[in-house]
Amino acid sequence: MTSRRAQYLSVGVIVLYWVGLAASRLLRSDHTRHSVTAIAANVCVRAAIVTGVVWILMRLCGESIGDLGFARDRTGRFLLRTGLLAVGLFAVSNIVLNNLFSPVFGHGQAPPIAELFRDPHEAPYWIFSAIVGGGFAEELGRAFVLTRFEKLFGRPGLIFAVVADSLVFGLGHLYQGNASALTTVFTGAILALIFLRRRRVIDAMAVHALFDLMGIAAAYALYSH
Predict the structure, then answer these.
(1) What is the pLDDT confidence band of residue 30, given thresholds at 50, 70 and 90?
(2) 15, 36, 76, 166: which could form a disulfide with 122 (CB 3.0–4.6 Å)?
(3) Sequence-ordered alpha helix ranges (H) in the chain
(4) Is residue 15 within 8 Å of residue 22, measured between CB atoms?
(5) What range does the domain containing 219 cover?
(6) Positive or negative, the Cα torsion across 65, 67, 69, 74?
(7) Structural domain tally of the chain?
(8) In angstroms, rounded to a whole number, what is the distance separating the alpha carbons of residues 172 and 177?
(9) What is the percentage of the chain residues whose pLDDT exceeds 70?
């Protein structure tokens, strides 16, 4: 298979995933996940599938996963930069956007997922999901999506990929409630820009993982018994 055909195959796989995920979320009336262990198990399966599919398709394109950017600068500088970005993203997402959308879409109530933060003993499952699911798998997939569309369609393709991937990312979080799902659309777009700024997926992974960990801490502070 030529590299060009492999790129088209990659885009085809991405579009099929988008359509399947969007259909599954929009056609279901109940989006709430009913246990933390089920979420963690789903994360394991999804991370394995994403890693395997991305690895295979990038090899077919004559590239490696490492080309998405896993090299980082000095540890202190890396942690400071990604930590500040995560704090800023958390503030924008949870203070500005959630307060903007919740009165309209959330009716001022706790989101459905709040029930899953009642027992602090389940926190390790959430921490695992934040690092492996949010930090690693979701950002690996996002970087792959953006680079595939850019390589085939240039800047217009990249812009389309940022918008489409962010919308699908929001749909994937409908189990957190409508307001949180809409906020997540904007969060996904910002994470895409963080990757594109330096073309290093490790930056977006670190920011996303730290962002999720802060969200977990806040959720337990608000909703645990």
Answers:
(1) low
(2) 36
(3) 3-27, 36-60, 75-90, 98-101, 123-128, 139-171, 178-198, 201-223
(4) no
(5) 3-223
(6) positive
(7) 1
(8) 11
(9) 94
pLDDT band, very low/low/confident/very high, at 178 (cuts 50, 70, 90) = confident
Q: Are 72 and 202 in contact (CB under 8 A)?
A: yes
Write out the two tokens for 4: 């060009």
205 contacts 50 by C-beta, under 8 angstroms: no
Tokens describing residue 104: 């309209």
The residue among 172, 213, 211, 207 whose CA lies nearest residue 81 is 207
pLDDT band at 100 (very low <50, low <70, confident <90, very high): confident
192-197: average pLDDT: 97
Structure token pair of residue 111: 């989101």
Q: What span, in angstroms and rounded, lies between the C-alpha atoms of 62 and 134?
A: 27
Local structure of residue 116 (DSSP, 8 states): G
Residue 31 has a pLDDT of 57
In 3D space, the residue among 94, 117, 92 whose CA is nearest the CA of residue 106 turns out to be 94
160 or 180: whose pLDDT is higher?
160
Is the CB of residue 129 less than 8 Å from the CB of residue 39?
Answer: yes
